[in-house]
Design a protein that fits this description.
Structural class of chain A: mainly beta
Oligomer: heterodimer
Shape of chain B: globular
Number of helices of chain B: 0
Radius of gyration of chain A: 13 Å
Largest interface: A-B, 26 and 31 residues
Strand content of chain A: over 45%
Shape of chain A: globular
Strand content of chain B: over 45%
Helix content of chain B: under 10%
Strand order of the largest sheet of chain A: 1-9-8-3-4
Chain lengths: 111, 114
């Protein structure tokens, strides 16, 4: 079973920030939070990951609460092309454990 | 650029037939994975391999087998296909030395079992 809980769907207006929440209350100290997205029926694509500090890259920002039990993926200016299923995953960074994908959140960006 | 390729991209077959799905990668990664995705559901892990001599079952390995012929190739077989194996199948790779632990996915194979 996935160790994360995400809302099944969300809507966001084009140009606005999309904030996707994820609960991971049983996260271990050596586990990272990863975010992937899957556009239509393509293979999932890595977005960002973090341990405890907030992270930002060219795609998104990741905000992790101080107790690490939840996080939020932020797409600062959502476009129609950001419409996808977003998966929040917790896993060790060693690569010895395959990623476990839950059902994710289906984000619909609306014009 | 197609670092991870899957063949065929689409396949329709009949119940009881043996089917092989192939995955090739040019990324030089040791780790390879097979997932299946059913409509409205996330990806579920079937098998994974950390190197040529290593094969591990995932959460839904029953009815499937795999072969790691080389570092670059990882095949998934359905010995006797059944309709509930109709799904979208993804292959993925990762580099154990990658600090991001990022997985790279192929384009998927859509399999229909009649």
């Amino acid at each position: 079973d996935a160790k994360t809980t995400q809302p099944p769907s969300m809507d966001c207006a084009e140009g606005r920030a999309a904030n996707l929440p994820c609960n991971h209350s049983t996260i271990s100290g050596n586990e990272y939070v990863y975010w992937y997205r899957q556009i239509h029926s393509q293979g999932p694509q890595y977005i960002i990951h973090g341990l405890k500090n907030n992270e930002t890259n060219e795609m998104a920002s990741l905000i992790i609460t101080e107790d690490r039990k939840s996080s939020t993926l932020i797409l600062p200016h959502a476009t129609l092309r950001d419409t996808a299923v977003y998966y929040c995953i917790v896993a060790r960074n060693s690569g010895n454990t395959p990623l476990v994908f839950g059902k994710g959140t289906r984000l619909s960006v609306i014009a | 650029d197609a670092d991870v390729t899957q063949t065929p991209r689409n396949r329709i077959t009949k119940t009881g037939k043996r089917i092989m799905l192939e995955c090739s990668q040019t990324k030089g990664h040791d780790r390879m994975y097979w997932y299946r995705q059913d409509p409205g559901l996330g990806l579920r892990l079937i098998y994974y391999s950390f190197d040529v001599k290593d094969i591990n079952k995932g959460e839904i390995s029953d009815g499937y087998s795999v072969s790691r012929q080389a570092q670059a190739k990882f095949s998934l077989s359905l010995e006797s296909a059944i309709p509930n194996q109709t799904a979208l199948y993804f292959c993925a790779t990762s580099d154990p030395d990658d600090t991001y632990n990022e997985q790279f996915f192929g384009p998927g194979t859509r399999l229909t079992v009649l």
